[in-house]
């Protein structure tokens, strides 16, 4: 059986088949992910799954992830916009310049996500109402509280995108854009952390992050040392400390964990 | 398999091996192995495969598929780890106390990235690469920091570009765990050069670069003496 012949035949009827599969290579990706479980004899079944993904469910998964990311970007944009508008909150000079730079990025991320969702024929969620004062009453009068929340949002953003990468694997363009946002969020996080005299990287489950107890969920699981089938990554090579081992790997958060964090501000 | 891992090891390099064996089986059989078998069959029966490029016997080839991409990451981590090891060995006194801590931390992070990838790749790992740092002045703070920025930004762009080339979602998440730490390094190094430039790598849309392996390897080539070929990497 020749899967490419089949796809080429479909192309005669539906010229956009490759767009729906994203690429020829992704056809393999779908095939092989099914192939893990199925014997070669089951390829017709696998083939069905390829087209189910191309013509059905995969787009909705991707749209769900994009709207999830959009909510976080709305939150960040809203937070920085309000913070910059709050009289006397952010000191002029390097601090204000940095926050402005970050705000512009978050606003661009919002725009890009909305455009991407629309290009996939999805509906972008509208901006929710956030309540940053719900648990942090002085968030827009106390500069240190503001920076603490900024750090928490950036580190959450990094972990949230990371947690969704696997759900975007079928769409190369969207995955790459998400990764390109993800690393920018990590740069923001590092800078904000250092504005608070923290290291730029996360050691342990919040050990070096200087956040109040209420914000601890942001760092839950960052003390993980089991990586890629190695039970304790501290033991590789000549051996490493827990500080190095946990600082060297950022951990993902699930959608549910992120939703719990966001709910502190809704 | 578990027994092998628990067996006491006499020599240091057998520690790596004992780690590598369960890794090999667990990761590559469960994730990649079965996949590769099916894909190979498909290719064999139906695809005009043009992967067989001429091989240079002296060159290190990264390989193909997810293994190739992980070796690509391993090559870059070897480069970074060697660089920071040199900085810490030769140049630490030029830095302030706080900066010394940063250099030590990054040295540790790049070292564990390298050793982790080596262990994860097991017998599929490429050999140790020989680096060439002759263009770097280790007595000049500026030379060190600008080289560090180059390596960190390149690392971020490399992982960002390689994500879509990975077939396995588990490996993708692993790469994601590493790339954001590289981005943190890049931001901190950039701020040491000029405070506030942490994310100036990003374009007007707020996106960091994503580079293809060929471009990344070309940029890294002046710093790596060992010839690397990457003709079989996924495109």
Automatic annotation (TrEMBL), chain A:
It holds the Pfam family Ferritin_2. SUPFAM superfamilies: Ferritin-like. This is Ferritin-like domain-containing protein. It comes from Pontibacter aquaedesilientis.
């Amino acid at each position: 059986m020749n899967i490419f012949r089949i796809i080429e035949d479909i192309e005669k009827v539906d010229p956009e088949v490759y767009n729906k599969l994203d690429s020829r290579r992704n056809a393999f990706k779908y095939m092989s992910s099914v192939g893990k479980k199925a014997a070669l004899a089951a390829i017709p079944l696998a083939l069905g799954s390829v087209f189910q993904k191309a013509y059905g469910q995969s787009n909705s998964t991707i749209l769900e992830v994009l709207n999830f990311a959009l909510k976080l970007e709305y939150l960040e944009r809203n937070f920085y916009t309000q913070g910059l508008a709050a009289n006397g909150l952010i000191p002029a000079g390097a601090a204000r310049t940095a926050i402005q730079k970050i705000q512009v990025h978050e606003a661009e991320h919002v725009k890009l996500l909305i455009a991407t969702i629309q290009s996939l024929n999805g509906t972008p969620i509208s901006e929710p109402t956030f309540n940053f004062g719900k648990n942090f009453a002085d968030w827009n009068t106390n500069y240190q509280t503001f920076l603490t929340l900024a750090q928490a949002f950036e580190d959450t953003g990094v972990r949230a995108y990371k947690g969704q990468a696997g759900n975007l694997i079928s769409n190369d363009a969207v995955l790459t854009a998400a990764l390109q946002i993800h690393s920018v969020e990590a740069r923001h996080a590092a800078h904000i952390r250092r504005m608070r005299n923290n290291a730029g990287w996360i050691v342990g489950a919040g050990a070096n992050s200087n956040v109040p107890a209420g914000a601890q969920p942001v760092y839950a699981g960052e003390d993980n040392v089991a990586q890629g089938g190695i039970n304790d990554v501290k033991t590789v090579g000549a051996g490493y400390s827990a500080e190095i081992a946990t600082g060297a790997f950022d951990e993902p958060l699930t959608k549910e964990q992120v939703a719990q964090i966001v709910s502190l501000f809704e | 398999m578990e027994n092998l891992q628990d067996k006491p090891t006499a020599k240091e390099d057998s520690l790596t091996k004992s780690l590598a064996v369960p890794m090999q089986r667990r990761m590559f059989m469960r994730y990649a192995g079965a996949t590769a078998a099916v894909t190979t069959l498909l290719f064999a029966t139906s695809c005009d495969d043009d992967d067989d490029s001429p091989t240079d016997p002296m060159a290190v080839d990264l390989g193909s598929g997810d293994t190739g991409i992980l070796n690509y990451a391993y090559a870059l981590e070897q480069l970074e780890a060697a660089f920071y090891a040199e900085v810490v060995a030769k140049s630490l006194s030029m830095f302030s106390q706080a900066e010394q801590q940063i250099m030590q931390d990054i040295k540790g992070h790049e070292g564990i990235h390298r050793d982790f990838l080596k262990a994860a790749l097991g017998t599929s790992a490429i050999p140790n690469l020989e680096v060439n740092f002759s263009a770097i002045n280790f007595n000049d703070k500026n030379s060190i920091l600008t080289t560090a920025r180059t390596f960190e930004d390149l690392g971020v762009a490399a992982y960002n570009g390689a994500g879509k080339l990975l077939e396995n979602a588990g490996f993708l998440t692993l790469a994601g765990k590493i790339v954001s730490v590289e981005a943190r390094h890049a931001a901190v190094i950039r701020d040491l050069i000029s405070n506030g430039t942490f994310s100036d790598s990003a374009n007007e849309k707020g996106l960091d670069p994503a580079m293809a392996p060929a471009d990344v390897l070309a940029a890294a080539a002046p710093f790596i003496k060992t010839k690397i070929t990457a003709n079989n990497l996924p495109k």
